[in-house]
Design brief:
Strand order of the largest sheet: 1-3-2
Number of strands: 3
Order of helices and strands: HHHHHHHHEHEEHHHHHHH
Radius of gyration: 22 Å
Distance between the termini: 53 Å
Helix content: 55-70%
Shape: globular
Length: 358
């Protein structure tokens, strides 16, 4: 915590904030310049390790925070606290948060301010009408019902081995990169979360660790969700930080891959986002459309709902609120509804490339 360290952190904080105002510069120089090098190095260093280095880091960090908190409480109880002690604690906290902020942004977080995949695909992202959301929901339902006919329990069981699941997810991006070169994915580093069961109570299905470059998947969720969750986290690794962009990138990967399980998984997720948006606009129309779902889809929707209801608790709601505030602070004003905004991208995509492209 020497003075030069403070100066460097403050200077970097100012530069990060300044750079965030220039998305064109960010797209060209960071997201397509510096960041790909950083991410490939991270995945090269940690991708071969069979467990999550980032999760161990997070666990160690939590232990340090608990230890420091208990030390502070012990000092307060023993009445050994004084003005200098409080000033030192405050300095340490500010230094810690500045260090985390700078590291987070330099290693990945600056991608929140890029132009992103809309520019790469030249999509026109606009407000949609009820007719638009009805059209895209119907199209997604048709695709979902189609793949529901072909997905067997045997095919789903084959992905119970997570190495196979993650290998196929990487292959999905390999298939997508044939059409979209910017989706090329090298040095795979996607792993089961060490906190998967805890994640059920905290409400997460996957997450990206910017400090280790690893993508973590909650492998205890219903298995038909896992393929899309995995591609969503790989999208984060490729620099698509916003949740709507990661959803859309995962969609492009899954639909490009000639695999019934992956395609069913992505259309299941995209349909749920779309039908949710349609319900907000016209609940009667949404209810009528849901009646046409394939029996397998209805069964999976019940399983998914039962799963999330089983783990619902007050702590999850607090975590969701906090995460929503984090998203808003990182250029996603809709908070957790940013995930649902993938529907806007899907509408723009089919309007540009045609119904069959969806």
């Amino acid at each position: 915590m020497k003075s030069r360290s403070w100066i460097l952190l403050i200077l970097l904080t100012v530069l990060i904030k300044w750079a965030s105002w220039y998305p064109d510069w960010m797209e060209r120089n960071y997201s397509n310049g510096i960041y790909p090098v950083i991410s490939r190095i991270q995945r090269f260093l940690f991708g071969w390790v069979p467990f999550s280095i980032g999760d161990i880091f997070y666990g160690f960090l939590v232990l340090i925070i608990i230890y420091k908190t208990l030390s502070l409480l012990r000092t307060v109880i023993r009445k050994k606290i004084n003005r200098q002690y409080l000033i030192t604690c405050l300095q340490q906290m500010i230094f810690f948060f500045l260090f985390v902020y700078v590291s987070f942004n330099l290693l990945w977080g600056l991608n929140y301010n890029r132009k992103g995949i809309a520019q790469q695909l030249e999509l026109q992202i606009k407000r949609y009408s009820i007719a638009d959301i009805d059209t895209v929901t119907t199209l997604l339902q048709n695709r979902l019902n189609y793949y529901a006919q072909f997905v067997t329990e045997e095919q789903r069981d084959s992905f119970n081995r997570k190495k196979i699941l993650f290998s196929h997810a990487a292959n999905a991006f390999k298939a997508a990169s044939g059409q979209y070169s910017f989706l090329k994915y090298q040095n795979r580093s996607i792993k089961p979360s060490l906190f998967s069961y805890l994640g059920n109570y905290l409400g997460f299905q996957g997450y990206y660790n910017p400090f280790s470059g690893e993508g973590q998947v909650n492998t205890t969720v219903p298995r038909f969700l896992e393929p899309f969750i995995t591609t969503h986290e790989i999208a984060h690794q490729l620099g698509y930080a916003k949740e709507n962009e990661a959803n859309f990138t995962g969609y492009l990967a899954c639909k490009s891959y000639n695999n019934n399980v992956f395609r069913y998984s992505v259309y299941f997720d995209m349909y749920n986002y779309a039908i949710g948006e349609l319900f907000l606009q016209d609940s009667a129309l949404a209810a009528k459309l849901q009646e046409k779902l394939h029996p397998q889809v209805k069964k999976d929707k019940r399983e998914m709902l039962d799963f999330f209801l089983r783990y619902k608790n007050p702590v999850e709601q607090m975590i969701a609120w906090g995460y929503g505030q984090f998203l808003k602070a990182n250029n996603q004003p809709s908070g957790q509804r940013s995930y649902n905004e993938v529907v806007v991208w899907l509408i723009a995509y089919y309007k540009k490339f045609g119904v069959e492209a969806l």
